[in-house]
Automatic annotation (TrEMBL):
Top-level taxon: Bacteria
PANTHER family: FAD-DEPENDENT OXIDOREDUCTASE, RHODANESE-RELATED SULFURTRANSFERASES
GO molecular function: transferase activity
Name listed for the protein in its UniProt record: Rhodanese-related sulfurtransferase
Residue span(s) of domain Rhodanese: 45-135
Cited Gene3D superfamilies: Rhodanese-like domain
InterPro entries, A to Z: GlpE_sulfurtransferase, Rhodanese-like_dom, Rhodanese-like_dom_sf
C-alpha cells in the first residue's frame, strides 16, 4: 500500500492505459477487417498481401508503403479490374486515416473480393508505429 501511495502516478497510468486498451478492444469488436500496422506487416510478409493506397496522387507521392499500388478512392470502381488477378491474395487498403480505405473495402467486397482488409488509422498509424515509407514511384 505504501508503494501505491508513493507512486500513485504509475498506478494511475496503468489504469488509464488499461482502460484505453479495453475501449479499443470494444470499439473494434469482432471486426477482423481492421488491421494494425503490425498485423498488416505480418500479412504482407507471411501471405504476400497486396497493399492498395487509395489516397490522392499528392498524398501518395509524399510517402507510401513500399510496393503499394496506387488507385485513388475515386477511381477504384473503374479500376478494380486491375486487382482481379489478386482475388486469391489478401488485399490491404490504406489511406491517410483509415476512413477512405474503409469505404474502398466495401466497394471491393461488393465486387467479389473476400480477403480485403483496412489499415486501421491509415498511414498516420503506420508512421506512428515506426514503419517506413517509400517515396519511389511504382
Amino acid at each position: 500500500m505504501e508503494f501505491l501511495q508513493q507512486n500513485w502516478y504509475w498506478a494511475a497510468l496503468a489504469v488509464v492505459s488499461g482502460a484505453w486498451l479495453l475501449v479499443e478492444t470494444v470499439r473494434s469488436g469482432n471486426n477482423k477487417t481492421q488491421l494494425s500496422p503490425v498485423q498488416a506487416t505480418l500479412l504482407i510478409n507471411r501471405e504476400d498481401a497486396i497493399v492498395v493506397d487509395v489516397r490522392d496522387q499528392g498524398e501518395y507521392a509524399a510517402g507510401h508503403i513500399a510496393g503499394a499500388r496506387h488507385i485513388p478512392a475515386g477511381e477504384l470502381e473503374r479500376r478494380s479490374g486491375e486487382l482481379d488477378k489478386f482475388k486469391s491474395r489478401p488485399i490491404i487498403l490504406c489511406c491517410a486515416t483509415g476512413n477512405r480505405s474503409a469505404g474502398a473495402l466495401a466497394q471491393l467486397r461488393k465486387a467479389g473480393f473476400e480477403k480485403v482488409y483496412n489499415l486501421r488509422g491509415g498511414i498516420m498509424e503506420w508512421e506512428k508505429a515506426g514503419q517506413p515509407l517509400s517515396r519511389k514511384r511504382k
